[in-house]
Amino acid sequence: MKQQHIPLHGTPNLRDLGGYNSRCGRSVAKNRIFRSGTLAYLNEKDWSTLENLNLGVICDFRREDEQIREPTKPPAALPIKIISLSVGAGSHTDYLQYVLGSESEDSESVRQMMRSINRDFVLKHSDIYSQFLKQILTLKNETSLLFHCAAGKDRTGFGAALFLSCLNVDRKTIHHDYLLTAEYFVPAVELVNIQQRATHVDWNKYKIKRLTPMLEVHPDYLDSAFAAIEEQWGNTETYIREALKITDDEIAQLQNKFLVHND
Fold it and tell me: Which residues pair with 55 in a beta bridge?
C-alpha cells in the first residue's frame, strides 16, 4: 500500500505510518504515529490539521542548534509536548560549508558520507533511539505522536525503520517507506530553500548542486545502517533488545498498542 501523505503548506514530507502490513497478519494502526521534516514553517491551517489528528507529542531529532535556529512553535492553545531527542549526525547544516567548500567532494564522496552518517545512527545514537521507542510506549490511546528531523529523511527514516521493525514489518516494506521521501522531498526544490534560509552563506562562491546527494534518498543509505546492525548484533531484533534495551514485553506492548486486525 502507498503510505498516507498529509499535504501541509509548511512541510512537504508529513506521512502517516499507519496501514503497513505486519508479518503477524495485522497492520499498523492509522492516525497514531507520523513522520515528518521540520515543523518550523507551519502556518495556522497546518497546525489545525495536526490538532485534528489528535497530535499530543512531538519528538525532535534535530540538534540543539537546529532547534534554536528553526524552532517549532505550536499555537499556545494546543497542548503539545515537544521532546528533544537530539541526533548529532545527519544534519544538512552540519555539512553544508564542508561539502561546498571542498573541491574534492564529488557526488560519490558525499554519498559515502551519507552512508557513514547512517552507520552512526546505529553505532553512536542507540540511546536516543531507545528513548524514542520508549516514548512511543507511553503514548495514550487517544493521542498521536509525530517524530521529525530537518528533512524527515535520514534521522527520521532510521527511527521509522526501527519502529516498524518492532511491529514485525518486513524489510521490503521498510525500504518502501524510506524511499517514499523521494516523492515529497524534492532535491531541486530544497536546494532553493537552503539558499533562502542560509542567508549567511555567499552562494556565489559555491556550486550548490554538490549538496544534491545529501538531499536524496538511496536504498544504500538505509542499508548502511542495517549493515552496521548485522555486523555487530547479527540482526535487527537483537539490536533492539541489546542496544536499545527494549524488552520482549515492551515489544509485545508496542505490537498490541499499534497493530490492528485487518478488516
Answer: 144
Residue 192 CA to residue 98 CA, distance in Å, equals 19
Identify the structural domains of the chain with CATH numbers, from first to last. Answer: 4-255 (3.90.190.10)
Each residue of 68-111: pLDDT tens digit? Answer: 989 999 999 999 999 999 997 544 555 565 666 666 556 788 88
Q: In terms of DSSP bridges, do strands 259-261 and 26-28 run parallel, antiparallel, or are they unpaired?
A: antiparallel
State in Å, rounded, how far the first CA of the chain is from the last one: 15
Helices marked H in 70-218: 92-101, 107-124, 126-137, 155-166, 171-179, 181-184, 187-197, 212-215
Cell of 133: 521507542
Strand 33-36 and strand 15-16: the pairing is antiparallel
C-alpha 59/C-alpha 75 separation (Å) is 17
- Segment 41-77, tens digit of pLDDT: 999 999 999 999 999 999 999 999 889 989 999 999 9
